Amino acid sequence: MGVTKQTIAIIGAAGNLGSAIAKSIADGNYRLLLFDRTSERLDWLMDDIQANYPDAELRSMDCAYDCSWEADIIIFAVPHRAEKEIADKIREVATQKIVISTANPVDQDLSKLNGEQPPSAAEKLQHSLPNSKVVKAFNTTFADDFENLIIAGKRLDAFIAGDDDEALQTVSELVKTAGFNPIIAGDLTVSSTLERMQLLFR
Ligand SMILES: NC(=O)c1ccc[n+]([C@@H]2O[C@H](COP(=O)([O-])OP(=O)(O)OC[C@H]3O[C@@H](n4cnc5c(N)ncnc54)[C@H](OP(=O)(O)O)[C@@H]3O)[C@@H](O)[C@H]2O)c1
């Protein structure tokens, strides 16, 4: 008997990171719900995934609320400044669900962190979604590098942080399906360290 597919919502799916994540897990045992506010780019992404992974189960959505309502795991792949507004819209349908924070709140030229520090973007998202299980993930690799995750014969590490053990294991599996070597770095407070790693990527 097959294992039940988890449903993953990606909010900001047509962006650089959102589309890289979607493509990297499209051949996994997941059902993907893709939402972005620019439907044209979302259509291109759908076509691209369907051409490369004909068996992928995916659907484009036109509303973050519906997308999150149907999902088991919700990935925020939008700029940090957009997260609060989206969190407010989906709060009631994100209860008890895993919410993945990918945001690195850095300046446009990636030279320094912006805004007041701490708390981290992930901790702020947890504050906005108190009944969800926020996990930091997918934020320590550039979207362009998702296509080449083995360097010198070694699989790239991906760091994960969160407070809920079961959620951390679930996200580890997801990150592994995406092609990374998952490393649990600690609880959600460790997110501020993971977000600062962006400053080393330039
Ligand atoms: N790109 C990377 O390599 C990378 C690496 C690590 C972490 N991250 C993190 O990933 C997140 C996304 O970055 P990105 O580079 O993928 O940015 P991006 O290419 O600009 O994609 C963001 C997507 O979110 C959409 N969006 C923005 N505001 C929205 C809203 N209010 N409601 C719905 N959708 C909205 C954007 O739509 P519009 O185009 O219409 O604005 C866009 O499609 C950021 O938090 C970033 O820190 C990115």
Explain what the structure shows.
The chain has a single domain (6-200), classed as NAD(P)-binding Rossmann-like Domain (Rossmann fold). The chain is 34% helix and 22% strand. It is built from seven helices and ten strands. It has helices spanning 16-25, 39-52, 64-70, 80-90, 121-128, 165-177, 191-196; strands spanning 6-11, 30-35, 57-61, 73-76, 98-101, 133-136, 150-151, 154-155, 157-162, 181-186. The strands form two sheets. The protein has an eight-stranded mixed sheet, with helices on both faces. Helix 1 links the parallel strand 1 (6-11) and strand 2 (30-35). Residues 12, 14-18, 36-38, 77-80, 82, 85-86, 102-104, 139, 142-143 line the site of NADP nicotinamide-adenine-dinucleotide phosphate (NAP). NADP nicotinamide-adenine-dinucleotide phosphate binds at residues 12, 14-18, 36-38, 77-80, 82, 85-86, 102-104, 139, 142-143.
Give helix % range.
Answer: 25-40%
Mean of all residue-level pLDDT scores: 94
**How does CATH name the architecture?**
3-Layer(aba) Sandwich
How many DSSP E strands? 10
Order of helices and strands: EHEHEHEHEHEEEEHEH
- Strand order within the widest sheet? 3-2-1-4-5-6-9-10
Counting structural domains, the number is 1
- CATH topology group: Rossmann fold
Residues in β-strands, percent = 15-25%
Concise structural overview:
The N and C termini lie far apart (47 Å). The chain has a single domain (6-200), classed as 3-Layer(aba) Sandwich (Rossmann fold). It is built from 7 helices and 10 strands.
